Fold this sequence. Notes:
Elements: H1 19-25, H2 31-39, H3 49-60, H4 65-74, H5 78-81, H6 83-86, H7 102-112, H8 117-125, H9 130-133, E1 135-136, E2 142-143, H10 147-157, H11 159-162, H12 167-179, H13 182-185, H14 192-202, H15 206-215, H16 224-247, H17 256-264, H18 270-284, H19 294-303
Antiparallel strand pairs: 1-2
Helix pairs in contact: 1-3, 1-4, 4-7, 7-8, 8-12, 8-15, 10-12, 14-16, 17-19
Amino acid sequence: MTDAVTHRDQDPQQLLAPLMQVAETGVAPDPKVTAEIAADSKRVLEIAPSTLYELLTPALCEKHPHTALQWLRDAGILVLILPELDATHALSQEGGRRHKDVWDHTKTVVRQAVPRPIVRWAAALHDIGKVTTRRFLPGGKVTFHGHAEEGVRMFRRGPAKRIGFPPEVHEAIEQLILYHLRPGQYEPSWTDSAVRRFHRETEPFLRDLLDLGRADITSKRPGKRQSCLRSIHAFSERIDAVVAEDAKPQPLPAGLGNLLMSGLSLPPGKHLGDLRKKLQALYEAGEVLGGQDAAYYLEVVRTRELMADIELKPPRGY
């Protein structure tokens, strides 16, 4: 790998020449090569942002992305192109427990993530907001309140300017950073309305978000990881069930009563409920279609003379 070492008259892209092999094999180059690259690492800033994305992304999607990230840090490149990520090194997530630092956690998340560019990039950057939001509480507890929102702000100010993410990738990474905690927060007690709202907010990137949520489970406690994975799986199935139910044609449309009043010149009253029951019975008998425009049912009322035996009963107070 000594041929990969750059000099002032060579293309600065050669600084990243060892990266792909590191990502493929999980083996770093000779320390001398890494040291020589580190000595010239500032030239990485000469690489165009769009080219940086093209050079980094394939390695990030290989079998050993965590080793590739570590090599970028050892070669003095990470601190230049992603100082926000470099700053997570030795940032403890629990008081007095070095092995729980954000850097090691992040590398594990990247390694566990499915090898799709959006998910791997989001995995690498999802916790950068912890650097500025860490707070120590009595008893050694550590909090990172608001780190997802702060991570989005940091991403916009830094990585998104230094690395030329395609617009659709940029947008998806932002959203995954913002929502990355949500899959792990799911509880079976959530109402269908809450699940429906979550789906509506995250639909364009939901698959990537759930995959990131799975990768973000790094607990070594016996059974903890499997329990969290089962919870996200149950959440995914719950979303699918709610979406499938909502997709079913509704027998009768909302607002039908108002149309019947205006179309048939009817006053409000119990008779509207009686008329709706007749339409419902016809639907259940297979004599009228479900999920149609309200005007369709108005025509059914007229042609079948459904008002013939219905007594007009205005509501109380009229």
